[in-house]
Amino acid sequence: MSTAELHTLTGAYALHALPEDERLAFERHLGACEACAQEVRELSATAARLGLAVSVAPPPALRERVLRDITTVRQEAPASGRSARAGGSPGRAGRWSTYALAACVAAAAAFGGVAVWQNQVAQDARQEAARAAQHNEQVARVLTAPDAATSAADLGNGARGTVVVSQSVNRAVFLASDMARPPGGKVYQLWFDDGGTMRSAGLMDPSATDDAVLLDGPVDRASGMGITVEPAGGSEQPTSDPVALMEFQDA
């Protein structure tokens, strides 16, 4: 992908809408392009504000109004005279009106439930959009920091790992490329190396072979990072030999 094409991906990146390979390529580009980095920060902030916008919900009094209006609809009079003599059932029309009224009440109640469900779905979507925008913004802050320092390592079988650390932001980002998926029921877990003591830094997506992971927690005095294969959900301490150990470089 050319540099000119990468310049056009700021909007899609801010909306978390790029395929994995393009996202990884664009994040590498961010480290060398201040114009794109600034545009991503602005678009991410805008996306977050739009995602948090309040949606239009049905008026709270709608259910009560529907129930009130139902009571004003006249029921049909009981069958009499000619219809009764013709064999009609005197109570049939009344019963059908009762059934219709019950159906309307049930529909009104169901409408209220659907409105609550739709509002919850919208709220969940807004929260997810806000989390994605915040993740993108934090990753961009690390990659574009003036003191960002990069270390790379061969992870075997053609896979590569790159860690970018910013002491001023006090965060680190791990970029994986062509990593083999972990065995079933397992997950890659990242660790900060605090002078030989390993501190959990989060889990990778087990379904992703290319990924950009914002390590959990601050860098602080960590001198490097490691990757191990752990049971799903992660471990408090490493339980397997490291897939890789990477030292942090100074800016």
Automatic annotation (TrEMBL):
It comes from the Bacteria. It is found in: Cell membrane; Membrane. Residues 6-43 form the Anti-sigma-K factor RskA N-terminal domain. It comes from Streptomyces silvae. It is a single-pass membrane protein. This is Regulator of SigK. Residues 105-243 form the Anti-sigma K factor RskA C-terminal domain. Its main location: membrane. Keywords: Cell membrane, Membrane, Transcription, Transcription regulation, Transmembrane, Transmembrane helix.
